[in-house]
Amino acid sequence: GAVVSQHPSWVICKSGTSVKIECRSLDFQATTMFWYRQFPKQSLMLMATSNEGSKATYEQGVEKDKFLINHASLTLSTLTVTSAHPEDSSFYICSAGRADDEQYFGPGTRLTVT
Amino acid sequence: AQSVAQPEDQVNVAEGNPLTVKCTYSVSGNPYLFWYVQYPNRGLQFLLKYITGDNLVKGSYGFEAEFNKSQTSFHLKKPSALVSDSALYFCAVRGLTGANNLFFGTGTRLTVIP
Description:
The complex is a heterodimer. Chain A has strands at residues 4-7, 10-13, 19-25, 32-38, 44-51, 57-58, 67-73, 76-81, 90-97, 103-105, 109-113. By secondary structure, chain A is an all-beta fold. In chain A, the strands form two sheets. In chain A, strands 2, 4, 5, 6, 9, 10 and 11 form a seven-stranded mixed sheet that branches. In chain A, strands 1-3-8-7 form a four-stranded antiparallel sheet, with no helix packed on it. In chain A, strand 7 (67-73) and strand 8 form a beta hairpin. Chain B has strands at residues 3-5, 10-14, 19-21, 24-26, 33-38, 44-50, 56-58, 64-68, 73-78, 87-94, 102-104, 108-113. Chain A binds chain B through residues 4, 6, 32, 34, 42-46, 49, 51, 57, 91, 93, 95, 97, 101-108, 110, and chain B through 32, 36, 41-46, 49, 90, 94, 99-107.
């Protein structure tokens, strides 16, 4: 159990367009979902924390108008990168938190902005 | 503030030899510590965690970690390395806020040489 999926796994988009990434907890209800960003050969940086039905809490330095997070249900959170630019190219990883405090990570989405 | 440090970017070990990946932590209060492994272009896989109890924690794939309060360390170990253990390893500590977000170390790339 405790499987988290992300879609798409890989996306290429043109500069100026928006991209939506989905994170789903497949077999459990996630009260909290987290979005991380990972640059090549670097660690994961927490971008934001989202709770179902409420606004996401963004980490310092993360633009909430650029990285829109929606957590409409206990099994789905979405991250939309608006007006993407090449510097937004990165590996985006979500995780879902369960009541036992464990975090379960998705497989990640590689975004390339051309 | 919660943080972890992984002093080694790269660890090389011969197949069959014991391996150690180092992690030190800095926390306020009792630490919740984790180890994750990441294979190329994949999300993170949970290996083990320390919350309380025995200082020696056993996890997945034969890995274990020893919590040492006096040295503020949580080193990952395995008695006999396999080539398939080659991956990127992250130490993490749970945040103090209500949400169970994680703060990650910079990662250590383990290479097991056949």
